[in-house]
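agent: user wants the structure for CHK kinase-like domain-containing protein from Lygus hesperus. delegating to structure tool.
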Amino acid sequence: HSLLVLRSLGRYHAMTKILIGRGLIDDSDKGHYFAGLNTPVKSGLFNGAIHMLSKALINKLGSWPAGWEDIGKRIQKQKDVLCNTLEELYINYDKKFEALNHGDLWSSNMMFKKMEYTNIPIAVKFVDYQLPHLSSFMWDVTYFMYSSVKPSIRRPNVDVLLKAYHESLSDNLKFFK
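agent: tool returned. relaying tokens verbatim.
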């Protein structure tokens, strides 16, 4: 599933990169991704999320085992730095890596087609395009990898997964030109 998603994402980003180059997608199409907005809502959302994460680590809530308390305290102390860094990463990026991002690419925003009489995925469609935005393609890649790929799959295969994305992106950039 993950390889199929990353190959499809590479094709999607390549197509949007070509459309940007042809002037068919421009700044007027740029949505506002919440990470890049300096608003009270975004600040509250991020600060709240970081606060809850640090509390969970410190107090061993949910599935967090003992041993993470120190990390939770460090995260709590760096809350403002983390929020500002995320905003800075969204705003200041190398434009040569700009693509139209889906913006919310996680497993619930995908529909898989399976080979008949099997459980083997052969195609994927991305749905729910409510947060598209022009930015570095890595927003979609990172969001998908950390929201939808189990750590037991992601960690030992990260190079294979990123290579699949890169090959698809490169091959499709050549194809669409």
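agent: one observation worth passing along. The chain has one domain: 2-176.
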